[in-house]
Amino acid sequence: MEHSVERTYFIETVRADFPILNQEHHPGVPLIYLDNAASSQKPRSVIEAMDDYYRRYNANVHRGIHKLSEQATAAYEGARVKIRKFINASSKREIIFTRGTTEGINLVAQTWGRANLKPGDVVLSTVMEHHSNIVPWQILAAEKEFVIKYIPLREDGTLDMDVYTRLLNEGGVKLVTVMHVSNVLGTINPVAEIARQAHAAGALILVDGAQSTPHMPVDVQALDADFFVFSGHKMLGPTGSGVLYGKRALLEAMPPWMGGGDMIASVRLEGSTWNELPYKFEAGTPSIAEAIGLGYAIDYLAEIGMETIQAHEHTLTEYVLERLSEVPDLKVYGPDADRKGAVAAFTFAGIHPHDVAQMLDAEGIAVRAGHHCAMPLHDYLGLAASTRASFYLYNRLSEVDSLIEALYKARKAFYR
Ligand code: C6P
Questions:
Q1: At 7, is the pLDDT very low, low, confident or very high (cuts 50, 70, 90)?
Q2: Has residue 54 got a pLDDT over 50?
Q3: Residue 2's pLDDT is what?
Q4: Which of 32, 271, 289, 324 is the most exposed place for a label (fewest CB within 10 A)?
Q5: Which residue among 303, 332, 347 closes a domain?
Q6: How many domains are contained in the chain?
Q7: Among 392, 253, 233, which Cα is nearest to 310's?
Q8: pLDDT by residue (tens digit) across 242-280?
Q9: Residue 6 above 50 pLDDT?
Q10: 231 Cα nearest atom in ligand 1
């Protein structure tokens, strides 16, 4: 049993629920999975729930009068109810299924953005955003001629809130679109305060919750987010699942994005009318097994408790930052553990981040190297790339020790 989790949950019991973790990465070398910010592993309950759908009640939803379709619809809509509760939305009509964070942001850009942004308006974002919260706005700005401004960072990798306030005061801001937790720096942004100021300036706020929802309690009403998006695959669920939350009045007023089956009330050759929420934004046959799987992932997380998971990850973050600070020639990016999620992006002077990742892989340790879909942030930091270790509820403190040991080994090999 590990010291940090004795108080919270028995980590070996959790690990036993994840079949993939119990394997050798190379002959005789156990897998240490530290690429959770890219995608998490899946517990048996999620894998089995999806298998069960395909084996026992595979059918389309909202369409058939037969028993299988009714069962599939109940499971699919049941997942929506679980998600509503998990993020404390006020109605299940505010929960739109998407394929992930990227699709959610593009949906808002192409519906709310297309209908509301005009030349001279300002969309305010940050330099730490993932590409999925930059490119959709750039694509639309090229057509609608609004301006995108970016909040810079302070030295410690947190947002410069003074500049934020100043940019809001310059006027014209219609939307603030900001990540909750950085996938590189780990910075936890003060989203409730950002929302408060945005609303006072007459702007809406979109929160990219891809790296927060898996790791901490999220309450969209407490944050007062107008839109909140996240991906299922980073929170124990399957790829191809995700959520756009939007305040009901906003979603009601927005035009649909994709047209097709299920999103209509009636179709005539002369024109069509739209279905009620949330179906207006769910055209075509959805990812049914994936939505059901996401529901089971939420059951799993809720059973342990998001506060408990956050506490365990905080211990891991404190420990990894402490141990990384001992390694010579290594620089970690982002704030201290109290303002950071369980993500450690670092560089080794003189060693390419990809080489570091490759040497770690040889030791059984899976990490990511590159720009992590945050090229502007890497430009801002003066880096081409970084190596990133990212943790989750099933990671042990001893895996941090293995990481550090492997980094010393890599250093010895390169500095020889
Ligand atoms: N970040 C990472 O390794 P999708 O691909 O749609 O599920 O999520 C996109 C996305 C959006 N915002 C943030 C903050 C993210 O971290 C991600 C995905 C992965 O960091 C893959 S690039």
A1: low
A2: yes
A3: 47
A4: 271
A5: 303
A6: 2
A7: 392
A8: 999 999 999 999 999 999 999 999 999 999 999 999 999
A9: no
A10: 7
List pocket residues of ligand 1, CB cut-off 6 Å: 37-38, 100-102, 130, 132, 179, 183, 208, 210-211, 231, 368, 372-373
| Structure confidence at residue 3 as a pLDDT band (50, 70, 90) | very low
Q: What are phi and psi of 143, to 5 degrees?
A: -95, -40
Q: Do 297 and 310 share a domain, yes or no? A: no
Mutate which of 183, 206, 230, 233 to test ligand 1's pocket (most atoms within 8 Å of Cβ)?
Answer: 183
User: pLDDT-based confidence at 196, cuts 50/70/90?
Assistant: very high
42: in domain: no
Distance 400 CA to ligand 1 centre (A): 23
Asked which of 259, 276, 303 is the last residue of a domain, the reply is 303
pLDDT exceeds cutoff 50 at 1: no
Mean of pLDDT values over 218-226: 99
Question: Are residues 254 and 352 both part of a single domain?
Answer: no
Q: Could you write out the three-class secondary structure of 311-356? A: HHHHHHHHHHHHHHCCCCCEEEECCCHHHECCEEEEEECCECHHHH
Rounded to the nearest angstrom, the distance between the alpha carbon of 208 and the centre of ligand 1 is 9
- Give the Å distance between the CA of 6 and the centre of ligand 1: 31
Statement to judge: residues 369 and 282 lie in one domain? no
Q: What is the pLDDT of the chain when averaged over all its residues? A: 96
Closest of 224, 280, 222, 218 to residue 247, by C-alpha: 224
- The CA distance from 237 to 142, in Å, is 35
Section 303-330 average pLDDT = 97
Instruction: Note the pTM of the prediction, 2 decimals.
Output: 0.97
Residue among 101, 236, 375 whose CB has most ligand 1 atoms within 8 A, to mutate: 101
Give me 78's structure tokens: 């049941």
The catalytic residues are 373
Angstrom distance (rounded) from CA 135 to CA 123: 12
- CATH code for the domain in which residue 11 is found: 3.90.1150.10
Determine the distance separating the centroid of ligand 1 and the alpha carbon of 64, expressed in angstroms: 35
Q: CA 297 to CA 46: how far, in whole Å?
A: 6
For residue 144, the enclosing domain spans: 48-303
Max Cα distance, the chain (Å): 75
Name the residue of 97, 130, 212 whose CB sits within 8 Å of the most ligand 1 atoms, as the mutation to test its pocket. Answer: 130
